[in-house]
Specification:
Number of strands: 17
Helix content: 10-25%
Distance between the termini: 143 Å
Shape: elongated
Strand content: 15-25%
Order of helices and strands: HEEEEEEEHEEEEEEHEEEE
Oligomer: single chain
Largest sheet: 6 strands, antiparallel
């Protein structure tokens, strides 16, 4: 133990001042760097959940792009509506259509299947009947021949077309079975077959699956006029090609009026004065006395 009376030595031999290097600091010296600038900063560890989400979004985007490409290829192969043809007996799927009315509401028509029936010719049935014995009526064709029945609507088509073929020669045109658009007076969507002899068009339908004579149109604006069928006339004597004056004189005891059809233009309508029932109608070139009656049509099939 040291003697307290011995003199105090502040710095014993061998002692070194640890703050000697700080004696010259003035406060203007730069701060020492704590990290090596050449070493890039460390990145935080990636989240597995975020990585999976990004990969999933990329896969979805890729799937949508592939689907659009495939859909475009399929659309390019579809035939434009109204241009497709169907062989007899084939079945064609219809197209679903969507329309928007003025209120912005949208309606959709479901797919339908349209079947085209096979078309077989109707052989001629002798003997021939002179055109002067055949008279156009409201409900068919009067046959002024004792051994032949009238061709009223509902008569089997083979019988009527067979007789007309023997009388007028082979048909000028046979459309075969087709789906009605309403042009020939058959209800839209029903099966129809139009067989033409010169300007005379026999309208065949299939109620109950039976080929049936259901209507006619005598139209001198359609078909050749060399056929003897051009001379067909009504029971009262009106013939396509007569004048408006002749029409009004022949049917002075009935009502003859004129109107406009969206497809045919000016038309006449012959109606019963007693019941206002439509008897005959057809296109006219005008309504003055010298204008022509261009056609004589039976009432439309769809209106009966």
């Amino acid at each position: 133990m040291s003697d307290p009376r011995e003199p105090y030595e502040p710095n014993p031999p061998g002692w070194t001042d640890p703050y000697a290097d700080l004696a010259d600091l003035t406060g203007d010296e730069p701060m020492p760097r704590l990290e090596d600038p050449s070493v890039p900063p460390a990145q935080p560890p990636a989240s597995p959940l975020l990585t999976g989400l990004i990969i999933g979004l990329l896969l979805i985007a890729l799937s949508v792009a592939v689907f659009q490409l495939l859909a475009r290829d399929t659309t390019d192969e579809v035939t434009a509506p109204g241009t497709a043809t169907t062989a007899p007996g084939d079945t064609t799927p219809g197209e679903a259509t969507s329309t928007t009315d003025g209120t912005g509401s949208s309606t959709s028509t479901p797919d339908v299947t349209v079947t085209t029936l096979p078309s077989t010719p109707y052989p001629p049935i002798e003997p021939a009947i002179g055109v002067d014995r055949l008279k156009l009526m409201t409900n068919g064709i009067r046959v002024n021949k004792n051994d032949v029945k009238d061709f009223v609507f509902g008569t089997p088509a083979g019988e009527v077309i067979g007789r007309l073929t023997a009388s007028f020669g082979s048909p000028s045109e046979d459309t075969g079975w087709q789906v009605s658009t309403g042009r020939w007076g058959v209800c839209e969507g029903d099966q129809e077959r139009i067989i033409r002899f010169g300007p005379f068009h026999a309208i065949i339908t299939q109620p109950g699956g039976q080929d049936t004579f259901s209507g006619y149109r005598q139209d001198i604006t359609v078909g050749d006029l060399d056929s003897p069928a051009k001379d067909l006339e009504t029971l009262s004597g009106l013939k396509a090609g007569d004048t408006i004056k002749q029409l009004e004189d022949i049917y002075a005891n009935q009502d003859v009026t004129y109107s406009t059809d969206p497809l045919l233009g000016d038309i006449f309508e012959l109606r019963s004065k007693q019941s206002s029932e439509l008897l005959l109608w057809g296109p006219v070139r005008g309504t003055s006395e010298d204008d022509q009656v261009l056609g004589i049509f039976a009432p439309d099939v769809c209106d009966r």
